[in-house]
């Protein structure tokens, strides 16, 4: 335990974290300006930001591990949590994107030119079970492929690895079903978690496995985002084709404000 006491800046923590009119960077898109009104979010972009951050933090921790010494073993807990949380956020982001894509597509097929998409409460994805969100993602994903909403040469490569990726996700889910094992030494009843501390070599192996999973999930994420943006463009063209430009701009602006 560190017993050294060093001076530090006693300014308030939240003055530098919370978004204010004074600190807002007008050049940044809203989803990257900090804590915003949730209705202004593009949820897939927001989840993507968080997911990338957790994974990169774990990668950098592992890159900083110097030896097999016990001194570095305590990094196993944050590293494993960060990787697990990356996977949870990425899976939830894809599920949200596919749900939104499905909503757009369904309304478009019914010739409703500009659907009122569900607000953020409908996009909440509760729970922490990785296997649950993996299976839900696959169900939405296969439906999107069958409907022709997602296309690309990467689909064949992804198809060959679904089983392996699912096995690795299930393996981590079995170790930590509640996203608490790597955050606390005991459960809510005070019982210690029975886990073995991984050494630096094993942590690097975990990094490599997660990197393989990330390749496939990040590819799916990108394809879903591209397909969703294409659908949105189709809506804008449809609105402009149906209404005069002034009315169309007003309708599109109202919809975007409601997001």
Could you please describe the fold and organization of this structure?
The chain has one domain. It is 58% helix and 0% strand. The chain has helices spanning 43-63, 76-109, 130-146, 154-159, 162-175, 200-242, 245-258. The termini are far apart. The model is unreliable at 31-40 and 110-121 (pLDDT under 50). The chain has 259 residues and is an all-alpha fold.
What is the oligomer described by this structure? single chain
Distance between the termini: 48 Å
Low-confidence stretches: 31-40, 110-121
- What is the H/E order? HHHHHHH
User: How large is the share of residues in beta strands?
Assistant: under 5%
* Helical content class: 55-70%
Q: How many separate domains? A: 1
Q: What's the story with the biggest beta sheet?
A: none
Gyration radius, rounded: 22 Å
Count of extended strands: 0
- Sum up the overall morphology in one term: globular
SSE class: mainly alpha
Mean pLDDT: 78
